[in-house]
Amino acid sequence: MQLTARHHEYWRKNLRITAFLLGIWFFVSFVLVFFARDLDFKFFGWPFSFWVAAQGALVVYCVIIWYYARYMNKLDREYGVAEGEET
Questions:
Q1: What residues contact 14, with CB distance under 8 A and at least 6 apart?
Q2: What is the pLDDT of residue 73?
Q3: Residue 87 belongs to some domain of the structure
Q4: pLDDT tens digits, residue range 16-67?
Q5: What's the pTM?
Q6: HEC profile of the chain
Q7: Phi, psi of 42, deg, nearest 5
Q8: How far is 9 from 15, CA to CA, in rounded Å?
Q9: Is residue 86 part of a domain?
Q10: When comparing pLDDT for 78 and 81, which is higher?
Q11: Residue 84 maps to a domain
């Protein structure tokens, strides 16, 4: 099957959002956590670095998943490849 310009555009948008969200994931998982130990003030009785590493990262991961699913559903409808659609 020959890919059309429309297929290439769909995949380019898909790869762009995936790379962007993976960049956020990398920043939260490695960069932010690496520097979190320098945040030595207390937050609700716990070190703030604990909250960043244990709680904040989980919230960011859930937001990344939610945004990706929402964006891809919109993109799929825009290009006519949503589930249940005949092409």
A1: 72, 75
A2: 95
A3: no
A4: 999 999 999 999 888 877 777 777 777 778 777 777 777 888 999 999 999 9
A5: 0.78
A6: CCCCHHHHHHHHHHHHHHHHHHHHHHHHHHHHHHHHCCCCCEECCEEHHHHHHHHHHHHHHHHHHHHHHHHHHHHHHHHCCCCCCCC
A7: -85, 140
A8: 10
A9: no
A10: 78
A11: no
- What domain range includes position 50? 5-79
Q: Note whether 14 and 75 are within 8 A (CB).
A: yes
**CB of 10 closer than 8 Å to CB of 75:** yes
Whole-angstrom distance, CA of residue 4 vs CA of residue 66: 29
Q: What is the CA radius of gyration of the chain?
A: 19
Residues sharing a CB contact under 8 Å with residue 72, sequence separation 6 or more, in sequence order: 14, 17
Residue 17 covered by a domain: yes
Q: Based on the structure, what is the number of domains in the chain?
A: 1
